[in-house]
Each structure stands twice: as structure tokens, then as C-alpha cells.
Write a structure and sequence with these properties.
The structure holds two protein chains of two kinds. Chain A is an alpha+beta fold. Chain A is about 20% helix and about 35% strand. The longest helix of chain A is centred in the C-terminal third of the chain and has 9 residues. By secondary structure, chain B is of the alpha+beta class. Helix content of chain B is about 20%, strand content about 30%. In chain B, a hairpin with a 4-residue loop joins β17 and β18. Classes of the chains: A alpha+beta, B alpha+beta. Chains A and B meet through α1, β4, β6 and β7 of A and β1, α2 and α8 of B.
């Protein structure tokens, strides 16, 4: 399994043609206490770069964009019940959704962990 | 008081990164407390500290929160005839305002539109015509330009950029401040002001705030702000609180935010701020927009600022349409999750016919209709410490 990152602060685990997607620990720290999360439903089709989920902190609502195109196989229902899971474990139990990747070529060009760390370090 | 924009509405996460902005006197102190600094009204300001907005919000409701509001404009207006001169620009009865008393008021344009909201305090000397104004950070430059263009010669306007402003808010605030300024709790009640010395430093103290809790605002020379902040924050009942919780606290308290709930396209009557126009001034007029405001008071405003209580967890934020069936009957001007109530709340301008308490409306958010019921403001009761029937 390989983990990739986007400049929009999403992470994506790729295993075969299945991807698990969430927001990074950096993103949750930027957003602050999350109070509402909407994840895509199983069966919905997502396009790369298009709105996939919504996160709301006390201070703002933000869109989460899908880093790859595909068909959603599962949304993380636990987040809808308790959004704070993303604050406590953004890159683990706080995953947003899983999808079947439509075009594996879209993975190319995403950052690996060290590239993302460097990217984030350049933001502060 | 009021604030400019916390970010509202959906935005890409990457937009949350802070551009550079001017530091305030306590900049280093905030950073040392682990604050996350964001640009706000042209300044770098703490949006929250490591514990986060909800913890800070709850701390302020149960203990005492220390806020740095040094971005706000502190002005003095003085000179012979200062009361008359200010009364020509805002609808407060300043002649009747005693020394050491504070009033919420509004700078109005000639049509009665709201240029800013503010607190005016009459200076401590009964004879001296000195008024201290605290105005919004984002509007202070425009306010100063407006005042300078309208105030007659001989009236002096000073922008006290040399002063920082701290707020200590919450049920423990009075007990904490008592230890720094003995007797302060008995000396002043809600909307009263005094000044004290702390060592060699003059501190202006008003019992007011923007959280709905009992609390104080402390004007202190910028060079001594850190000393005062340290002294207050050393108390176990006090934690520093950022702008994020300041916004959720003021929203629960039903206090409007300039640039969102108030603006040039709103008026005091629609905004539910008719209390800021004293009886005498209503009768005598003589303030900007008096004729239009008199008509609104007489006939009722066509739309009113109301509270909305939402179900679920998805918040309606600024810009959401308020619906009655398929018809747009209003718009949300502030909204968010209420930590105290555990559900989203919002303030919205709604057509008068649909503004009655209990009316079932809906807020449109990302294509969904969220049930929203009209409820009284404030959402969370105020707990001001009033003294002697003030």
C-alpha cells in the first residue's frame, strides 16, 4: 500500500484499484474543532478535483475535493456521528471515504509523504 | 462589540493559510501561548490556542476568558460642545449620559444606514466634555475619516493607537479582577466605567463585553499590555481565548457583528437595535437618518433580524437563503454551531410576516433545506452584572 498527498491537504491510500481518502493532520489542525462532516454515499461517482465531502469547523465550512476520480464504495458513517474523530486521528480512523479508482494514471503527480511534509513546511 | 469576517461559507482548505498582517502589541505573547495566528481586520490575531475553539468557548462560559481586542479602534472626542457634536452623528442621548457611564450606539449615515456600532463612554470628569469611543477594527479608518469630516472645528478627535485593549469575560472575571483592582466589582456594574492605577500605569476599565457574560474591558498603554495580560492569565481561572470563540460566544449572546448582521443596507430598527435610540432623541430627531428611522419605528420594519435554531449539526452560514416553502423570505447573516446548545444557530433578516417566534422556516445550505425555527435572541441568556438599576 502506498500513501499519497495533495496540495489541498488530502491523503490517499492506494491498494490495487481501491483508494481510501481523508484529510491530513495538518488540515484538521488548520480547521480546528470539527462539528459537522458530510461524506459521499456509496455508489456516487466522483471526479478528480471536484467536491467530494464537506467539513465544518466552528469557524468555517470547507470543501474536500476528490484527489482521484472513481466510484465510492463506502463513506465513513462514524464521522457523521462524531466529527471529532478527524481531530484526534485524521490520518487513521478519521478516513472520509473509499472508492474504486477509475484512472490509475491520476495517482501520478500526487506527492509522497516527504514531498508533502516539505510542502507544508513551506506554508508556515 | 463587533468584528469583521471570520471565514464563512465553503472554501478550499488551502485558503486557510495566513497571509502577513500587522502585529498587535501582544503578538509575541499570543505566539508564546501557542496561538494560531490569522489575519483579521489587517492584523495578525489569535483565532485559537492549543485547546481549540470549543474548549475556549466553554471555558469562558464557566470560568474567565482573556481576549486581546487591541485591533479595535479606541478614540476620544473632546472639547466644548463635544456632546452636541457627537449627537449630530449618532442617536444616543449623550447629554443625559453621566460620567463613567457607557452606551451602545451606532454611527449612522444620512439615510439611517449603519456605518458602525460602538460603545461610547463619558469621561470621568463631570465638567469635561470627553467621550471615549470603541469602534470596530475593520471600520475604524472609515469611522475616523467620517468623524473628522463631520465634527466641527474645536472638537478634538484622537485615535489612541498607543493603547491596547483586553477583555476579561466570564463568571469568574469579577473575582479575578478583584485581586488586581480591589473593590472593582462593587464600584462598577454593567455598562459603567472607571480608571485605576496598576503600579505606575493607568488602566481604563469598563464593565462590558461581547460574550453575554459578566466581564470587563481594560484599556492599557500598549507597552504595558503584556504585563497586564500576564498578571490576569496567571490566575488559574483565566485562559487566553481567541477570535473563534469570541465569534461563537457573541453569536450565542445574539450580539450583532458589523459587516455581517449590520451594515449600510441595514438600519437600527430592522436590526433590533431601537433600544440604542433614546426616547428623547426619537422625539427630537437631529441625528442622521432620523426621519427614515422615525418612519420605521412608526410603521414597523419590513424585515427583522431574528434568531434561528437549526436541527442536526450542519450549520447555515452567512449568505444562506431563508425559505418559507419555495419562497425566499430572508437571508442568514451569521451562523454557526452553538457549543452551549449543541446545535447550529443563526441570525437572519426575515420578512416581518415570517419573523414571529416559533415560525417554522428552512435555511438553504448546499442544496438542502435545513429546518430552522424562529427563536428569541439571545440564544443563551445574558448574565450581566447590573448595578443600581442601570
Amino acid at each position: 500500500m502506498a500513501r499519497y498527498f495533495t496540495q489541498e491537504h488530502e491523503w490517499i491510500d492506494v491498494e490495487g484499484d481501491t483508494a481510501t481518502i481523508g484529510i491530513t493532520d495538518y488540515a484538521q489542525a488548520q480547521l480546528g474543532d470539527l462539528v459537522f462532516i458530510e461524506v459521499p454515499e456509496a455508489g456516487s461517482t466522483l471526479a478528480k478535483g471536484k467536491e467530494a465531502a464537506v467539513v465544518e469547523s466552528v469557524k468555517a465550512a470547507s470543501d474536500v475535493y476528490s484527489p482521484v476520480s472513481g466510484t465510492v464504495t463506502e463513506g465513513n458513517a462514524a464521522l457523521v456521528e462524531d466529527p471529532s474523530v478527524v481531530n484526534s486521528d485524521a490520518e487513521g480512523a478519521g478516513w472520509f471515504y473509499k472508492l474504486t479508482i477509475a484512472d490509475p494514471a491520476e495517482i501520478e503527480g500526487l506527492m509522497d509523504e516527504s514531498a508533502y511534509k516539505e510542502f507544508v513546511a513551506g506554508l508556515d | 462589540m463587533t468584528e469583521p469576517a471570520l471565514q464563512t461559507g465553503p472554501a478550499p482548505i488551502e485558503d486557510l493559510q495566513p497571509p502577513s498582517s500587522m502585529p498587535l502589541p501582544l503578538d509575541g505573547w499570543h505566539r508564546a501561548q501557542g496561538a494560531r495566528m490569522v489575519p483579521f481586520a489587517g492584523y495578525a490575531m489569535p483565532i485559537h490556542y492549543p485547546e481549540g475553539i470549543i474548549a475556549e468557548h466553554e471555558w469562558t462560559r464557566h470560568h474567565a476568558g482573556l481576549f486581546d481586542v487591541s485591533h479595535m479602534g479606541q478614540l476620544t472626542v473632546s472639547g466644548s460642545g463635544a456632546a452636541e457634536a457627537l449627537e449630530a452623528l449618532l442617536p444616543a442621548d449623550l447629554h443625559a449620559l453621566k460620567a463613567g457611564r457607557m452606551r451602545y450606539s451606532l454611527l449612522l449615515d444620512d439615510e439611517g444606514g449603519i456605518l458602525d456600532d460602538l460603545i461610547v463612554t463619558r469621561g470621568g470628569d463631570e465638567d469635561g466634555a470627553l467621550f471615549a469611543l470603541v469602534v470596530n477594527g475593520a471600520t475604524k479608518d472609515d469611522d475616523i475619516a467620517h468623524l473628522r469630516s463631520r465634527l466641527p472645528k474645536g472638537i478634538e478627535l484622537i485615535h489612541r493607537e498607543d493603547q491596547a485593549l483586553l477583555a476579561l469575560q466570564g463568571p469568574a472575571a469579577a473575582g479575578v479582577l478583584e485581586q488586581v483592582f480591589p473593590g472593582i466589582g462593587a464600584e462598577i456594574g454593567f455598562m459603567q466605567a472607571t480608571s485605576r492605577r496598576l503600579g505606575q500605569v493607568d488602566v481604563g476599565i469598563g464593565r462590558s463585553g461581547y460574550t453575554g457574560e459578566d466581564g470587563f474591558e481594560l484599556s492599557v498603554p500598549a507597552a504595558h499590555a503584556e504585563m497586564l495580560a500576564e498578571q490576569l492569565a496567571a490566575h488559574p481561572e483565566v485562559k487566553p481565548i481567541g477570535l473563534g470563540a469570541r465569534d461563537s460566544l457573541r453569536l450565542e449572546a445574539g450580539l450583532p457583528l458589523y459587516g455581517h448582521d449590520l451594515g449600510l443596507d441595514t438600519d437600527p430598527v430592522s436590526a433590533g437595535l431601537a433600544f440604542a435610540i433614546s426616547k428623547k432623541r426619537r422625539e427630537a430627531g437631529g441625528f442622521p437618518g432620523a426621519a427614515r428611522i422615525a418612519r420605521l419605528l412608526e410603521e414597523g420594519a419590513p424585515e427583522r433580524l431574528v434568531g434561528l435554531a437549526l436541527e442536526g449539526r450542519m450549520a447555515a452560514r452567512e449568505g444562506s437563503s431563508v425559505m418559507m416553502g419555495d419562497t425566499i423570505v430572508g437571508r442568514v447573516t451569521s451562523g454557526g454551531f452553538s457549543p452551549t446548545l449543541g446545535h447550529p444557530i443563526a441570525m437572519a433578516y426575515v420578512e416581518a410576516a415570517h419573523a414571529e417566534q416559533g415560525t417554522q422556516l428552512a435555511a438553504q445550505v448546499r442544496g438542502k433545506l435545513l429546518p430552522a425555527r424562529v427563536v428569541p435572541l439571545p440564544f443563551v441568556p445574558h448574565r450581566y452584572h447590573r448595578k443600581g438599576g442601570v
